[in-house]
Q: What sequence folds into this?
C-alpha cells in the first residue's frame, strides 16, 4: 500500500462544469429603484428637511453676558448688558424650544443667562462697595 499526500495545486472546479459566466441573479434582475429621495429610497438619517441655524438671540445673549462681567466693576455699568443678556437668553431659549429642532444654540442662551446674572450680581456688589467705602472720608483722620 502506498500513501499519497493530498495535492495542494489548483482548487477543484465549481459544480456544474467549467469556468463560464456566473448565473443570472434570482428574480430576473434588479428592477426599478424605489421612489423617494432622488429615486434611491429614503434619505440617510440627518439629511433632508429644513437645515438648522443658530439662534441669533442666543449669540447676542452670550456676548452681552460676557460684556456685563467685563464691565461690572466699571462704575456698575455691567447691569445694563447683564439685563439685556438675561432677557435675550430667555427669549432665545423660548424661540429654540418652539422651533421644533430648526434652531440650535440653547447652550449659548444658557451661557448668556448665567454670565448675565453673574454680571448683574457683581455690578450690584460693586455699587455696594462704592457706597459703603465711598461714604467714609479718610482725610479727616
A:
Amino acid at each position: 500500500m502506498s500513501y499519497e499526500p493530498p495535492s495542494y495545486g489548483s482548487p477543484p472546479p465549481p459544480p456544474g462544469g467549467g469556468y463560464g459566466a456566473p448565473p443570472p441573479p434570482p428574480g430576473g434582475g434588479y428592477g426599478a429603484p424605489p421612489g423617494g429621495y432622488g429615486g434611491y429610497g429614503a434619505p440617510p438619517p440627518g439629511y433632508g428637511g429644513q437645515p438648522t441655524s443658530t439662534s441669533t438671540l442666543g449669540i447676542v445673549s452670550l456676548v452681552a453676558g460676557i460684556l456685563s462681567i467685563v464691565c461690572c466693576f466699571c462704575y456698575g455699568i455691567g447691569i445694563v448688558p447683564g439685563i439685556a443678556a438675561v432677557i435675550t437668553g430667555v427669549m432665545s431659549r423660548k424661540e429654540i424650544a418652539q422651533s421644533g429642532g430648526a434652531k440650535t444654540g440653547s447652550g449659548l442662551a444658557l451661557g448668556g443667562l448665567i454670565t448675565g446674572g453673574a454680571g448683574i450680581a457683581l455690578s450690584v456688589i460693586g455699587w455696594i462697595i462704592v457706597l459703603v467705602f465711598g461714604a467714609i472720608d479718610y482725610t479727616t483722620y
Summary: The mean pLDDT is 80. The helical segments are 56-70, 79-98, 106-134. The radius of gyration is 36 Å.
